């Protein structure tokens, strides 16, 4: 359950930026996973150069936000009034550019990021079991980010403008809001959240080219389940996907092991586990086609 919650929190950091970008700009951004990769590589390289994970974490936020702002200004601005097919083609091209650029800068071999000494080791849980402190820290960071995003969207002037941009972008432009700057800020914020997710997960797995695309697929499932444009929906959807995926991969092979030989149980259980989140998504869409918590309009 805790591993599923940790996966869900990581997916929330990805999906929150993705749902903000789609909700405010109406843009399908397939390159969001590349910004996750940028954050992971920036953290790993900065940590290796300075010897400090925290310096790497700051570098991941700065690099991902800067990359997002540059991409928005140079490429994305030309896509807002285009149809979704053009957006898909352009942002898919950005995936290839980011992948080859990262390979050119860092090579094809993976980088490795150490868990900071402060967060190494395990902690005792009720019942006597122990759990990795770093994974608990990721859960805590995700909860803190969720609260901060809620306060930003609901209680600040920038959040008011973001909500207004979701409802009627032409009207807030007519009222004197610099819509282009607003879009750049939203895109940079979403990119920074993706970069933060990449940096945090980079200490649990190798940092390599193409690491963002599998996570991007799960993030799209999250926002479809939770509701496009909704931060609350992104959080709830992420927890559902994270727990469902992790528990399914753990429990289903064991369940089928009671019914068939272990070699077959692993194959059948693993195959069904990989389908489970899409089955959940289909059920949710059959009941609530707009997702569990669609963003309010008007």
Explain what you see.
74% of the residues lie in helices and 2% in strands. It has 298 residues and is mostly helical. It has one domain (2-210). The two termini are 38 Å apart. 43% of the residues are buried. The model has no long low-confidence stretch (mean pLDDT 85).
What would a concise description of this structure say?
The chain is mostly helical. The chain has helices at residues 2-25, 32-50, 53-74, 84-106, 133-155, 157-167, 169-174, 179-202, 212-226, 231-257, 262-287, and strands at residues 122-124, 130-132.
Largest sheet: 2 strands, antiparallel
Which percent range fits the helix content?
Answer: over 70%
Look at the structure and give the mean pLDDT.
85
Count of individual domains? 1
Strand content: under 5%
Helix/strand structural class: mainly alpha
**Total strand count, please?**
2
Shape: globular
Widest sheet, order of strands: 1-2
Helical stretch tally: 11
Distance between the termini: 38 Å
List the uncertain runs. Answer: none
- Series of H and E elements: HHHHEEHHHHHHH
Based on CA atoms alone, the radius of gyration comes out at 20 Å
